[in-house]
Structures
1.
Amino acid sequence: MSRLDRRKMMFLGTAVITGIALRLDAKGKEPKEVKIVKFSDDGQREEEVSMPVMAKTDSEWRKQLSPGSFEVTRHAATERAFSGEYWDNHDAGLYRCICCATALFSSATKFDSGTGWPSFWEPIAKENVHESGDYSFNQSRTAVSCHLCEAHLGHVFNDGPKPTGLRYCMNSLALRFVKPTAHS
């Protein structure tokens, strides 16, 4: 094999290894893909897309988030009742994930639950949230997280209003509120 052929093989081998490494997550596995629905800031449903779950290190999340948002979204902490920015927000708009900007809830489904946390009777798209069992504090609850980045958002309970009877009780620190853009 000539020197040029060996260089080509080494380059090709390095490129293949680099390509594989870029497709693997921190644990050496192919990243899990999830489907989410994209929405404009006006709340208009756009498209359903498949994307790899967003994975960052704690250090990267800490650079992006406030200390409170980091504890809530990455360590499943809960903000104090009546302390969050959005529990009493009555403006029209969209609630997005503080970590990845995925659309989660619309103000059209927000209601006053009297709990001191922003509450909604349904997510803007079921595909955008993930529900899982939470057995902490010797309780059985259903935790709600962002499907794209796995940020803890809050919990869902069966004591909400019609039409769903559900109460998605979210932490303001896990959300970013976006008002609709003005059209001329």
Note: The mean pLDDT is 88.
2.
Amino acid sequence: MLEALTVNRTLRVGWRYLVIGTAIPLILTIELLISSNRAIVFPTTFPLEVPIFAVLGSTAGLMTFTSDRAKGVFEYLLAYGIQPRTLFMNGLLAALAMSAIILSTSLAIGVGGAVAEGVALKWNFEEAILLYTLPMAFAGALFTSTIGMIWSSVSSPRSGFNSPVGIAPMFGVAPTILVLIIAETVPTSEYYWVTGGAAAIIVVAVLVLLALSARLLGRERFLSPL
């Protein structure tokens, strides 16, 4: 019940991210498809860009978490026996829901546009989607949200860029870009071992942080300072 409520609220609070997450892939798709070399540029570039949109879209879940924390909502939930880890899991679920929506929308726009323009999407495009786009999108979203929620929980509420909502997305986008740079330095046969391994490491880091969240964060940290 609490999970569904959190996701529903995140969709209402983060509708701007859904709009942006739809508009940017559309612009990117148009830009790639009007290229004179679109048959090569689109299949190789589009899968690498999509995770960035999904990571940024997950910020809506973090926004809901930090807003509830600042308004003292967690004070009431904790008083009724809800555990801090449950609040974290709800935040992650909301972030993943937003990322999944933006990810599926981005892929639908990109693939639909390519098919409409007659661009052949071969096995390497599908391989890139399965072995890089999907794992890195969700891993980056989880990492961004986890870092942001911990940061929000142990610090005084802030607004603007100097806040978890403003800075945390960089923690998700940076690994995505770094993995691409590293992967480009290895042989093609090892490319997806690097990207898949990086995604797995990020997910393990998230699980470790969640396991330690009860110890890292005291209950009083969630209470509103007002």
Note: The mean pLDDT is 77.
3.
Amino acid sequence: MTSIFSLVLAVEFIERNLTEPIGPEEIASAAFVSPSYLFKLFKRVFRCSPGVYIMKRRLCRAADALVREDASVTDVAFLYQYGSVESFSRAFKKQYLLPPSEYKKRKPQFSDIYPKFVIIEGVNNMVPFTSVPYNFNELSAGLLSSRGTYFLLVDIDHMMAINDNLSHEAGDAAIATSMSRIERSIKPNMLMMRIGGEEFGVITGSNDSNVAEEIAKNIISFADEEVKWSGDPFKFTLSVGIGRIPEDSEDAEHAIKTADEALYKAKGNGRNTYYRAD
């Protein structure tokens, strides 16, 4: 329980200070642990160092400021603690696969590719706590206000192999590319978010199964598109599960269950496909 408490304090401190020059000592002090113990906690739960976590969260906030607030690249760069526009642009392109100026022109509707992690208790003593990268309140509210409509779960196929055989940077590029593929496949009024390590969710707001299937077909149609990043280009596929949010859904987990089962079917059918549960 102490570890959970410390992680929550650390994450909340980071969120409050993303525009400030913070270091591991300050974060550890706010979490009542040593810097070395903090590092171990982040590597264990988030699979990255506190510094990498901060960088990804700052870039998410920066991307949002560029699009939602129409802030300049220069202002955003210095606000989020980059010493120069050049260093900010390099880091931004690495995360979003686009220079910040081009990203701003495209005005994507979804920028929170690495949302604030939510720490939850585990199910047994072997896994006492874990984390999920989504805004649970936003997801829950969106699902429960869309009862009777279709929800899509999109999962990156063979993500572990991408991380292990290429690198975690390649995995990050796959996540950014998945975001782009989904965004190009949905309508502006639809809500999408990252809801797991390699999973995205789409709340269509439509009770038409044809609409949901068309989105799924569009998402998987990008399978031959190469991912261009700092290493050699590579390709990857996505699988999609389609489920109708039950009229009697009481919580987010209940609402996701049907789509999750459909995703499992899509994976079992060979991946790079979709399955709709009726």
Note: The beta strands are 118-121, 129-132, 150-156, 191-194, 199-203, 238-244, 274-276.
